[in-house]
Amino acid sequence: MAVDGSQTDWTALVFQVRDHQDRAAFAALFRHFAPRVKGFLMKSGAGATLAEECAQDVMATLWQKAHQFDPARASVATWVYTIARNRRIDMLRKSLRAEPEDLDWGPEAEPDQAEIYEAQQETQRLGKALSVLPDKQRVLIERAYYGDLSHSEIAAETGLPLGTIKSRIRLALDRLRQEMT
Amino acid sequence: MTIRHHISDPVLMAYAAGELAEAFNLLVATHVSMCDNCRAQLVAFEALGGAVIDTQDEVALSGSSLDATLARLELLPQATARARSRSRGIFPAPLADYIGTDLASVGWTALGAGVRQAILPTDRRATARLLYIPAGARMPDHGHRGLEMTLVLQGAFADQTDRFGPGDIEFADEGMEHTPVAEAGMDCICLAATDAPLRFNGLVPRLVQSWFRI
C-alpha cells in the first residue's frame, strides 16, 4: 500500500506480525507505540513502573490479536488506543466492558484498499487537526481521553466552571469535524 | 427502524474513553448495535483517541523492555479470527451476553400493575435494569437524583417530552419528572441505566423503592 515516504506503513507491519509472526516488524511497532502508550497511561495516573508493564501488555496483545485488526475500520494507532483503554479499565476496576455487536459483512468480504488507506490516513489528519486547536481546547480533549477524571473533577482541578469545559469541548469537536470533512 | 433519539456527544466520548460505569457501557453498546449513525460517531471518537495516542509525548521504556516483551511472545499463542457476537431475539449481542438466551430466560420481579423489572449484574457505580411495561400501562411518576438513560428494545412509550420507539434513548436528568406510558398495541421492553436511585413522588412507591431498587 502506498503511503508517502515520510510515514511508516503500520498496517503492513501488523500484517507481517499476523501472517509471519515477524519479530522485526513487531519490534518496529513496539519502538513507535510502546513509549506513547506508556506516556498515555502515565497521564492517566499510572506510575512509571505500572505504565511500563501495561505498555508491554498492550504490545503483547497486539501480537496475540493481530488477526482481529480490521484496517478498514481503524488505523493501527486507533486500534492500539482501544487496547490500551481496555487494559486501563481492567487495571483500574476489573469491570466488564460491553462492546457493540459486530456488523455482518458476509463471509467473503475483503476490506477495500481505499477504505484501508482512508482509515490509516485519518489518524494523521486528526492528529494535525488536534495540534492546531487552541491550547485551551486541545488540553481538555486530551484530558477526556486520559480518563480517570469526570468532567466535574477536571473542573475542580483546572478551576474552570463545568459549563465552560462543556462548551470548550463542544467547540473543539466542531472544529475537528470541520477539519475532517 | 427509524431512530430519532441518539446518544449525545459527551456520553459517546466518555464511552470511547472507557470512562462510563458498566451499566451505561452496556446501554451505549446496545444502542450502537442498533444505530448506524451512532456507530459511525463512535468510530470517529475512537479515532480521536488514536490521534491522542499518536501525538503523545514519548516516555522511554527501560532498555530491556523490548527484549522482555519479545521473550513473552514465545509463550503467547496468536488468537485466530474473533468469534462473531450474536444478537438473540430483541436483544442485541451485548445485552444478550448479560441475559441469556431469550425473553423467557429473564428473571423478572413484579412491580405492580403488570410492570416488571429485572436488574442486571453490573458494577455498583450504576444500575442496569430491563423494564417490561404492558401495552397501555404507565410507570409510576418519578423524578431523578442523577442521570437516567432509557433505551427502547420493543414497543414504544411516550411521556411529557416525546415519543420513544425501538432504538430510541431518552435522557433524564436531575429535576426532570416524567410519567412514561407504554403505547397501545405492543408491550414495551426497555433497558434503563441509572447512576442514582430514582425518586418516586408518591408515599407508597417511596416506601417500596429501597425494596425494589428502582
Written overview of the protein:
- The complex is a heterodimer of chains A (181) and B (214).
- Chain A has 181 residues and is mainly alpha-helical.
- Chain A has eight helices and no strands.
- The model of chain B is unreliable at 205-214 (pLDDT under 50).
- In chain B, the strands form three sheets. Chain B has a six-stranded antiparallel sheet with strand order 1-2-3-10-5-8, with helices on one face. Chain B has a three-stranded antiparallel sheet with strand order 7-6-9, with no helix packed on it.
- Chain B starts with 8 loop residues before the first helix and ends with a helix.
- Chains A and B meet through helix 2, helix 3, helix 4, helix 5 and helix 6 of A and helix 1, helix 2, helix 3, helix 4 and helix 5 of B.
Short description:
The complex is a heterodimer of chains A (181) and B (214). With 181 residues, chain A is an all-alpha fold.
Question: Hey, roughly how much beta strand do the residues of chain B contain?
Answer: 15-25%
Gyration radius of chain B (Cα, Å) is: 21 Å
Characterize the overall form of chain A: globular
- Largest interface (C-beta under 8 Å): A-B, 78 and 63 residues
From the N-terminal CA to the C-terminal CA of chain B, the straight-line distance is 29 Å
* Secondary-structure content class of chain B: alpha+beta
Write the H/E string of chain A, N to C. Answer: HHHHHHHH
Strand order of the largest sheet of chain B: 1-2-3-10-5-8
Task: State the separation between the terminal residues of chain A, measured CA to CA.
Answer: 23 Å
How helix-rich are the residues of chain A, as a percent range? 55-70%
Question: Which geometry of chain B do the CA atoms define?
Answer: elongated
Strand content of chain A: under 5%
Quaternary status of these chains? heterodimer
User: What share of the residues of chain B lie within helices?
Assistant: 25-40%
Q: Give the overall pLDDT of chain A as a whole number.
A: 84
* Nearest-integer average pLDDT of chain B: 85
Q: What's the story with the biggest beta sheet of chain B?
A: 6 strands, antiparallel
